[in-house]
Each structure stands twice: as structure tokens, then as C-alpha cells.
Amino acid sequence: MRHMALGAKKPKSSASSTNRIRRRSSTAQFAVCVNNAQYPASLELHKIYRVLPDLEAAREGRLRVVDEDGEDYLYPADWFVPVQVPPAVKSSLLRAS
Question: What tens digit of pLDDT does each residue of 25-66 get?
């Protein structure tokens, strides 16, 4: 069974279609996981993850990350390092999500 990181998963209502649109955005953001101590089954160290904008979470020091199942969860922001990726890599990562 998958965890609900910090108990803060977005509801599946209209958010899922919004996420699909955001996921294909040219302003896509990515981050590398540098700490998975509490969720080793859900987060892989050194893996690049898709990050969704979430101002409220950011104010609380958290980051909304899309996992391998295409679901987004909140994690402590300091568990990730934002990265800029070249356009070809960005395109590949977005196709995979």
C-alpha cells in the first residue's frame, strides 16, 4: 500500500485533469531527491522528479512531487534540489509522466 506523504495528497476531483495540463507545460519544474529516509519505498535517491506548483505547500516548506504512479504527494522541500534540465531531457521526462 502506498503512503500518503505527510497526509497531504491532492483530491482526485478536477485536480487530476488540471495536473495533466500542468504536467505538459513548457514551464515544467524538476527536482532531484537527496533524502528518502522516511519513505525509501516511495522515493528513490538521486532520481529526478516532476514538481507541481503549490504555493501553500511552499509556504509550509513542502514540495508537491509526482511519483511513479502519476500521483502527487507533499514532501519536505529540503529533501529535493531543484534542477534545470536541457529541453531534450525535459521533453523525455514529460513523456514518461
Answer: 457 799 999 999 998 888 999 999 999 999 999 999 999 999
Residues in the chain: 97
Q: b/e per residue, 57-71, with b = 16+ CB within 10 A?
A: beeeebbbbbbeeee
From the options 2.40.170.20, 2.30.30.40, 3.30.70.260, 3.90.550.10, give the CATH code of 5-96. 2.30.30.40
pTM above the 0.90 mark?
no
Q: Which residues, including other chains, have CB under 8 Å from residue 78's CB and lie 6 or more apart?
A: 35, 61
Query: SS3 of 73, please?
Result: strand
